[in-house]
Amino acid sequence: MSMFQIFKVSGSAVSAQSQRLNVVASNLANVDTVAGPDGQAYKARQVMFQTEMMGATGAPGDPAAAGVRVSTITEDQTPGRRIHDPKNPQADAEGYVTYSNVNAVEEMVNMISASRSYQNNIEVMNTAKSLLLKTLQMGQG
């Protein structure tokens, strides 16, 4: 694998984790939302990743590198929390208010995981950049 493919692989991971962080932020922003006028509450979204082959030229000794991409963003179909609060203007005929199905603890774990993965891939790119710079410096001397 060439040094330049490292940037492609890490770059794909940074992009995928960035999308994951955006979805987590959206989920956390809607953790306490109630059902809208259509009766449907916000549903948590989850990011699904897929392996993406990149950089294979087919030449001997030039293996393909595997990156990652977001394949889909799915909605969690778990029913939302229902809390009995007949005085709430959003309550249904039975006096229940339906909240989103977002689990704040799970989303915080997802946020920490995505953030660390993002940071690690940035560090990989910085290390590869340092190695390339040192290689160029060796060629100058």
Automatic annotation (TrEMBL):
Write down the species: Roseateles toxinivorans
Keyword Acyltransferase part of the UniProt annotation: no
Q: Give a single Pfam family match.
A: Flg_bbr_C
- Per UniProt, which keywords does this protein have? Bacterial flagellum, Cell projection, Cilium, Flagellum
Q: Where in the cell is it found?
A: Bacterial flagellum basal body
Give the family, as the similarity comment puts it.
Belongs to the flagella basal body rod proteins family.
InterPro entries the record matches: Flag_bb_rod_N, Flagellar_basal_body_rod_CS, Flg_bb/hook_C_dom, FlgC
The reply on keyword Lipid biosynthesis is: no
Q: What is this protein called?
A: Flagellar basal-body rod protein FlgC
Q: Which residues form a coiled coil?
A: none
The organism's taxonomy opens as: Bacteria, Pseudomonadati, Pseudomonadota, Betaproteobacteria, Burkholderiales
